[in-house]
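Hi P.,

Sorry for the delay on this. The queue was packed all week, but I finally got your sequence through. Input first:
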Amino acid sequence: MRYELLVGLRYTRAKRRNHFISFISLISMAGIALGVAALVVVLSVMNGFQREVRARILGVVAHVQVSGVQGTLAGWRQVAAEAARHPRVLAAAPFVNAQGMLAFGSAVRGAIVRGILPADEEKVAEIGRHMRTGRLEALKSGEFNIVLGAELARALTVLPGDKVALIAPQGRVTPAGVIPRLKQFTVAGTFEVGMFEYDAGLALVHLEDAQRLWQLGDAVTGVRLKLDDLFAARSVAAELRARLAPVAFASDWTRSHANYFRAVEIEKRLMSIILTLIVAVAAFNIVSTLVMLVQDKQADIAILRTLGASPGSIVQIFMIQGSLIGVIGTLAGVVGGVLLAWNVDVVVPAIEQALGFKFLAKDVYYISDLPSEVLVGDVTLIAVVSLVLSFLATLYPSWRASRVNPAEALRYE
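Then the structure:
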């Protein structure tokens, strides 16, 4: 073992004459551990929220959507078959998307009406899993049934079995003028995916019923695709755009909700920077610890210098001691943060029960529990940043120690 490492480790273990230095060392170590743990837990919870919201969005929105360039897609079966040949596409389902107005009694609400084939829709989306009443299979051609979002049904004050009027804004020309098309639908069920945008503004009908109401013939708005990897959606959409042009255009879920996911990513980065400052403050407490230690060990430094130790060796001794504080603090913070992030679903309810209130009330927030997802990349990056900051904090005090003049240090010894 090199003597620099031996002396550095011995200084770390030795009892100091100045107990205040030991206290500052412990505070620095605890501060680094606390900052690292906080950073791990916060980023894990933000990852969990992002995963939860993404899952809820993709329960309604397809991974990739192929639409007609002019708004309608006539030969959708050929397009669906061509898209299905892509090795990453698992399933395809046609759909009709149109705006409509729903009326029940005196209540009137605008909504996006989506025509689907229930059997195919189950393969590309998860609305069937979020049905509160009824079943998606109740949508049958010619029966004119409709499934509403829970908030939309509440706004219209309808229950399963009630009949609502669906008004299509595209009217038909008669001798009396342009009259909007109107059809009565029977409410067959309600769904709640946990996203207000869809729960309050989406209605599902059978594909052929939508084609009849909007007079599309055999055409549809487009085809929805499910992939084996949702994060491959951008590249798959680009390949399909090149393959299907100019008949159809392909877009993916990252484009349709780009603003939301970009905002979440920016928030995550800013939170990382803010919490990294906590680690930085704790790491630079090492500076004060080592500066005081250098003052306390001037005689020892002078003796080592007279025995032949070079200034570089003195620098290494104190860098080893300061870095050890950072390593121990970082390891403690990573272990504590990961354990807390893994058990946040147990810890948070215990705190809520002890304090007597709920952090995320069900009647206010759609996500009432704190989700958590620990990513190895995030934990590794946090640990590396903490170690680098700890290492940088040792440079100046170690350099000061190497500048100690042995004659001056031993004058009064």
